[in-house]
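Backbone-to-sequence.
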């Protein structure tokens, strides 16, 4: 199987075009297409001194097999010229349009997986478009009520019970029902995407020391422990609630396939410290396959030639693996 992968190029003023250009020069055993403004990409290639053969694709044509040094583009032109590092809200709708094109191609079965380059949430919101992140946006457009965010590399997998919300809203957002649904999705997609059946899941506590037997909070006893008990009765292999300050130690990690953290900054700083630039963002629970980079738009690096493209390449590689595994299990 030669999977078809569609890649959204992200914020045009950021490093998205840079890393897409760099990735197009690498070998991938897949059919690749980048949704982007071809004029912007050509301009950025000249600025970076990259010799890339940029070709526009007719949307209804089958994607060609990727050839290093050739960048196949599904065109969506930005309404305003782009200056590297300078955000423009007038291009906000263009950014969401290229995401939607990737979603639509996967939902229609024209592509086997989508990969996303980073976007700048603030400028999309400044354009008057409510946007909290790729995860929520893709979920809404695929009719997914409950997406689960995971970051993974070859050493660690971390999922989140809550994603892009203020810290003060986290406790009220964690419910027994929500945790049960999250754990069920993790269990299912660890098998569907990674080929790991009955995965070993560690669930972090919300409070320091997982509540210290109720002395540092009752969230564990009232919500997290009942959710774990329910899912254990469903046959899932779960441990916890585990204190977050010990869950990520080397001794503990050997016993888990994946860790469920309660909130964004409980789990993600740890995995990013373990290998920033080689981590892949995965949305679980979707009817389509979506992977992404582990970093932001890095506006200060746009157009400088100093942007690293390793995370995008890792995301493309993982999307290819997921697509092949799904094809083999159909």
């Amino acid at each position: 199987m030669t999977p078809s992968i569609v890649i959204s190029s992200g914020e045009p003023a950021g490093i998205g075009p840079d890393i897409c250009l760099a990735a197009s020069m690498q070998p991938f055993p897949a059919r690749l297409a980048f949704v982007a403004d071809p004029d912007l990409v050509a301009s950025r290639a000249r600025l970076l001194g990259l010799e890339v053969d940029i070709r526009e694709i007719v949307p209804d044509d089958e994607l060609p097999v990727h050839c290093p040094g050739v960048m196949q583009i599904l065109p969506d032109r930005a309404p305003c010229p782009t200056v590297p590092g300078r955000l423009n809200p007038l291009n906000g709708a263009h950014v969401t349009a290229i995401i939607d094109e990737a979603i639509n191609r996967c939902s229609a079965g024209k592509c086997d997986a989508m990969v996303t380059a980073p976007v700048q949430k603030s400028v999309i919101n400044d354009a008057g478009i409510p946007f909290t992140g790729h995860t929520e946006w893709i979920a809404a457009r695929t009719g997914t009520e409950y997406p689960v965010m995971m970051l993974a590399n070859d050493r660690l997998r971390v999922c989140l019970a809550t994603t892009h919300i203020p810290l003060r809203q986290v406790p009220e957002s964690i419910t027994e029902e929500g945790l049960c649904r999250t754990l069920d999705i993790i269990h299912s997609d660890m098998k569907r995407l990674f080929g790991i059946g009955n995965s070993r899941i560690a669930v972090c506590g919300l409070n320091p020391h997982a509540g210290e037997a109720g002395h540092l909070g009752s969230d564990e006893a009232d919500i997290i422990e009942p959710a774990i008990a329910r899912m254990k009765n469903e046959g899932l292999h779960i441990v916890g609630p585990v204190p977050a300050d010990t869950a990520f130690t080397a001794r503990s990690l050997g016993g888990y396939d994946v860790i469920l953290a309660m909130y964004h900054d409980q789990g993600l700083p740890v995995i990013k410290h373990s290998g920033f630039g080689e981590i892949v963002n995965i949305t679980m629970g979707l009817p389509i396959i979506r992977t992404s980079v582990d970093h932001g738009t890095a506006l200060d690096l746009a157009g400088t030639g100093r942007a690293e493209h390793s995370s995008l390449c890792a995301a493309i590689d993982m999307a290819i693996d997921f697509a092949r595994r799904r094809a083999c299990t159909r």
